[in-house]
Structure prediction request, 1023 residues.
Amino acid sequence: MSQVTPNPMDVVLDLIHPSEEAKVAIEARSPPPSDADSETWSSAGDAPRVQRRKILAVVSHIHPDGMHEHGCVFVFSEKPPRVQSIPGPFLVEHAFPVVAGFAISMSQPRRATMDLSSPPPGGSFAINQPRTELTVTIDPGQDSPFTPITLQTNDIPGLRRVLDECKRLKEAASAEREGEYDFEPFGWVAPYIADDVLPPLLSPIPPDLRRIRKPVHTRLSVASAGLPGDDMADVEAIREDWMRRKVEEDLFARSEKAKLRIRIGTFNVNGKMPSQDLSAWVRGQMERPGSTFIPPLKEISPLSIGEVQKDPLEERMEALDLHPASDDANAIAADASSTHSTAAETVTSATVSVGTASMNTAVSDAGADVSEGPNDPDMLVLGFQELDLSAEALLYSTKTVREDAWCMAVFAGLGEKAALYEKLVSKQLVGMLLVIITKKRLRACFSEIRTCSVGAGIMGMLGNKGATAARIQFTPMPSAPSAADYEGRPVTLTFVNAHLAAFDEMFEKRNADFHDLSKRLLFDSGIVADESVPGSGNGYGPATVQLRVYDTDALFWLVDLNYRIMLQDADIRTLLASEDLQEENIKTLRRFDQLAFARRSKKAFDDFEELPIAHPPSYRFAGGVLTDSLGYDLKRKPAWTDRILHMASSAILVKQLDYASHPTITMSDHRPVSAAFEVQVPEMAIQEYEEYVERLWRDVSSLEYLEERPRVRVTPATIDFGRVSYKRAVTRRLSIENIGKVPCAFRFVPHTPTAEPLPCWLRISAMTGLVMPGENAELSLSVLVDDTIASQLNMGATHLEETLVLHTALGRDHFVAVTGDYERTCFATSISWLVRLPGPVRELNSPNEILSEDRGVNAPREIMRLVNWLMSQATDVPDLFLVRGEDELVHKIRECLDTGAEFDLDESEGKAKVALAVADTLAQLLDSLVEPVVPTALHGRCADMSSRDEAFELLDQLPVVNVNVWISLTAFLHFLGQQEAYIDKVERLVAFFTPILFRDDLGSSVPVSVVGKRNFLRYFIGQ
Prediction:
């Protein structure tokens, strides 16, 4: 079926903004060529060149004051197929404002005249004679930077209307007096002729993940009440974020989702060749015995000289009956001189970077009896480090013997499933190898395969340390039948295999290496950076855009980061050796992990996500006598050096399903680590996506140039949160209604440039946004007082009051008064403050009512009430402190503490349930204290105590009120530990209370011994 050509007016109406009016539009074309190359295109080969369609239109714009109308003559030109940087089928070729000096005229070329002589006898006029053709000349005027142009048209009536409209608009422009208005009369034309006409969401390059994951308001200009910042730049950021959210909420949300199962692994092989079954690592199946060995492959040095030896890969494949077909074998042999491999030769759209990467195909053809399982990964991404430790490898390494050996071991680990897979791409840099394996049936879904690598080792260059990376586009297959010309919207996946500096003291070097690799890992996009700049000659083409690893939809790092644990060696081994407290001790060790510290302090990987580690450290193991009971090398502290982290945009959903090490694979001093992911990608035709984005863009692309100011109604003007309590969320709604005629971008700004836009106790669901005319944005405002906020509010006035400033970009500020009444709590205070309360904290009208130190009580009433209740009511209840209490019961108990009311606990709910809630309340109260029961300055001395007597003597160094709390609590715990239900749970109680009574300083790079602090507590509650 032939496609219907839209008439000129429909085309123009689809291109202009709602604030403009199309007066007339006619078909036009360029005069016959001298410029045929630029005015025509050919689809392929020797096909005839096609004249580009042009439309001549007169468009007017009436200023919001209703008194000034201005016009512009546009020439819209059909976009050549090869132009992808501009959305839509037409582009603005010329825009001529109709001003006093503007002129338009027409003439009739001789060659276009019609033969009107008498027809031959018995004949008639020929119906195929050329139609009358007129030439149109447009002169923008002497003061214009534009040059005159000439067009031709057959639409004589339409051209008359063009001339009439231009005459009318020119007379109106000439009649205007200088200084009659204070606005730019043709500012509305700017969006049509702006250089950057491509909506950001249609860029072929995904946005930097680090940028789009940061809240929009943190990326805006500095502004405050009455002092707007750079509204033009702010509009761009808010608009892009709004468009992105609309696409995700309206388009992606209703689309089907393709699920891509990815299994990622990292393994530092310590220079070893494969000698064990890798199925546990590559398939995630039940661990096999560690004695399942594969005979090691004979090493071949690329520098060795001697007789030609049989390829060990051939020997192993014959032994396992996994030999590829002859064509594949030849391909592998041909690739032996390169260390970059992929299967991309079979897909014309796939491109690869020049360098040390390799490409080949599957190990074997799929057997008819091999079926896919529901948990089989669609993609395997494996990173190897220290593949080759030889000195010669640092200087010269082009052979792929080790890569081939490990790839073959991976396929062997897949077992019968290996027939379903093929290698997609690999990239090696000395000892670092990144291999990507995919299911054969999905091969057509992957394209634009690119790789790169950089060294960060000796002198910051050699490849004993550094990274290899691969960038791949994945286009999901549609789940439903689709048209033959269906083209899906792809997403980009990027994988980085890195190896950073070793040793404990190289923490800052590792952080620096991470940032260095993030900058230097670049992929060649193939997109010309500046089409106006020709190539440099000598065989080099024009410069191309370089892609960073963060220019992607999802980024995965599978790495040997070499981050260590910041505790003493003896502490680490002691905690790991405890079988009864393995889960608790793993959590304790995680708090002192260097990578966790780097992320908390935002020194490295702070934007990444990692599933909490539940497996023991994967490094460093050894054989022989110099090991501990767990097999760790006595010369190196155990550490989680091998990690898998990820980051993704909100356009796709990445779920991490597991995270584990594999202790049965013992051939190296590291244990391999794996993680399973499910990536959900919207199934969508790229045409549907682009059309939706173009519609959004058409509505909001001219925000910066609109003459009419945005108008909104903000309701209510006052929001009262009523009573605000500790850890009890209170929510209210705020409505922003656009009552104007233009889209409105808004943001909350502070009162002064150095202040924060919101008080510490208030949260808003959206700090920025965009509202279309006639639409309404509903925001959620909530107050949730946590420990940090409560510690501030407890010491100040209880009436909360703030005025929020809502700034509309290019418009005015609106103000919203927010009030509430905070109810003080005994939580998030200090022991010294609690003992000086004259009564229940809720009765305190002002902090000035606090008693002097000499009038305070011996211990906080609230803590003593809880301890006494537990001692008298709950010593026979199992699992106190070890099982959490119900939140509502904890809240009731907290209210009783704050108001001084008697515990009104309905034991009909169950004595055990109430007791667990009371115990949980006590633990939360102690944990919320601004200063722990044992002051931080004494933690080191406590950890050094070697006997019970020394520990009791050290108590004299604590404040008296702290000592009283310590003695009361530990006496109860000691008594509890003597009960039958707790005889085997004392160590769990010690592990539970140590970080509460001795709060860890997670900001310190030299933490106090955890084992020492536990020993100190054990002197008081142990047997």
Observations:
- The mean pLDDT is 86.
